[in-house]
Every structure is written in structure tokens, then in C-alpha cells.
Amino acid sequence: MTCDQAQGLIPLYAARALSESDGAVLIAHVAQCTVCQAELVEAMRLGHELRAAFARLPGAPEGTWLSVAARTVGMPLLQVDLGSEVAGLSLSVGATRTGTPITGSLSILGREMPVLRI
Amino acid sequence: MDDGELLAQVARGDGRAFRDLYERFADRVFRFALTLLRNRHLAEDVVQETMIAVWKGAGSFKGRSRVSTWIFGIARHLAYRTLRDEAQGERVPEERGEEADPCREVEREVRVRRAVAELPPEQREVVFLAFYEGLPYAEIARVQGVPEGTVKSRMFHAKKRLAEVLRS
After folding, report:
1. Closest residue of B to A15, CA-based?
2. pLDDT tens per residue across span B111-150
3. Which of A59, A95, B15, B64 could form a disulfide with B27 if both were Cys (CB 3.0 to 4.6 A apart)?
């Protein structure tokens, strides 16, 4: 492997997007080349910082799903939650309008069962 | 269940599978759109339209790429349409970046984000998809609709620019 080839692969290695076999060939080259070693160290640091920076970006706002659901699977029409988190027991009843039909479900201890379809 | 199996269920009209797929991708698509558009409201619109397109088009996914590549390709198309709309006068102001924090680590992170924000959009995409999503060049090339060599060139220039800015 030449230095040019290695330096093309280094960003991919730092991004964890290189196959294991290509990674092994790259590391074999880097082990014998101080220039590429320095490149790899810098790319690894940059990769770590970039991942951290992107990971700290906010996620989609909470209400986004409702807007998507309203135009695809249907808006929740009714949601009633009863029960006690302390006792580990919960009961919820929901109804969702999916186009014309209305479906209802009953959820007990996280297990949801469809109970209604109109 | 992998993304492909989940998408197959979405293609059969399974609303619960669609909700699961949304949970897997909404934040990632939002961050991708935010990286491109630098505006939260526009990024949220891109998430909505992307996921609606996924719901409608799930049956057309042929499995020739990763599901994530397909979804980011849709998001990219919609984000660039938004950028074109902005260029035609419907401009929404960019949000200001964060102020530097006295804490050195946070300050460094803010500098990294600013350095990324100053890259051209095509390079920002490559950096996001490679470093955050871990997509190989071939998949990034599919998302961007360009040859793999173009992706490599964009990565080369982005990395060079980031290194210069962060060293200074």
C-alpha cells in the first residue's frame, strides 16, 4: 500500500466505515510509516470530536411524530392512562383513527392488545 | 429486527412498524437535515416529509442499498429542495451558533461544530454520513448521487479544511 492509498483510507478508518480486511492492510502500512501514523492519529481525534459534536445536536422535536402520524397511520383520538407506576401496574386505553376506521387498544403492563376496529 | 425487515412490514401497512422505524430514524434524519440547513424548523419539516415519503414509498425499496442510505437520500433531496426555495426568496434566517463556553472542552466542541458549519453543504453531508452514520464511501455516493471518487474528493477537502480551522 502506498501513502496516497493509505491517506485515502484513513478518514474511513477514523469514521469506522472501513472493512476489517482493508483496516488490517491499512494498519500494516501505518505501523511502518510515521507520516501516515501522524495522519491517522489526527484523523482519529477529529473523528472522535465530530461524532461527539453530531451526537450532541438535538433530536427531532417531540411533536413531530404526531404531525407525521396525522398524514400516515392516523392521529390518536383518545388516550386514557390509569394505574400506578409505583405498583408497576398500568392500564391504558387508546383509539386511533387510521383513515376511516377507528381502532382501539388496551395496554396492560406494556402488552398492547387490539380491542376495537370500526 | 433489522431495518430491512422493519421496512418490509411498513410496506404492508403496519403502523406499529412505521412508528418503530420513525423512532430509529427521526433523530438521525433531523441531525442530518440540521447539519445541512442549520435551521430547526426547516429540519423538522424535512423529517416530516421524509418519513411520509418512507411510508408511501416503502414498497418501492428494492434492497439494493442500505435502508439508511435510501432514507438519507430522500432527506437529502428534500433538504436541497428547501435550500433551493430559500435561494428563490423564501429565505429563513440561519440560527446563530452557540457562544463559546469558558469550559475548554465545550469550547472545543463548539469550535468543531462551527468548523463543520462553515464547510460547503456537500462536504458537511459527507462528514456527517461518514463520521456520524459510519457509511462507507460507496453508500455516501448513492445518497449524493455522485461517483465514489467525488465523495473521496469532498472528504479530502473537508478534512483538510477542518484540520486547518481547528489547528488555528
Report:
1. B131
2. 888 899 999 999 999 999 999 998 888 999 999 999 999 9
3. A59
Query: Does residue A65 sit within a domain?
Result: no
In a domain, A69, yes or no: no
Q: Do you know the residue count of chain B?
A: 168
One-letter amino acid at B73 equals G
**Residues in chain B with pLDDT < 50?**
99-100
**Contact by Cβ (8 Å): B138, B148:** yes
Q: What is the pTM of this model?
A: 0.78
Instruction: With CB atoms and an 8 Å threshold, state whether B52 touches A56.
Output: no
Shortest Cα–Cα distance, A89 to chain B (Å): 23
Domain count, chain A: 2
Cell numbers for B35, please give them: 447539519
Query: Which domains are present in chain B?
Result: 1-95 (1.10.1740.10), 100-168 (1.10.10.10)
Residue B8 cell numbers, joined: 418490509
Q: What is the least distance, in Å, from the CA of B109 to any CA of chain A?
A: 6
Q: Structural domain of residue A16, as residue ranges?
A: 3-55
Q: Residue A100: which pLDDT band, with cuts at 50, 70 and 90?
A: very low
- Whether A74 contacts chain B with CB within 8 A: yes
Q: Report the relative pairing of strands A111-117 and A76-84 from DSSP bridges.
A: unpaired
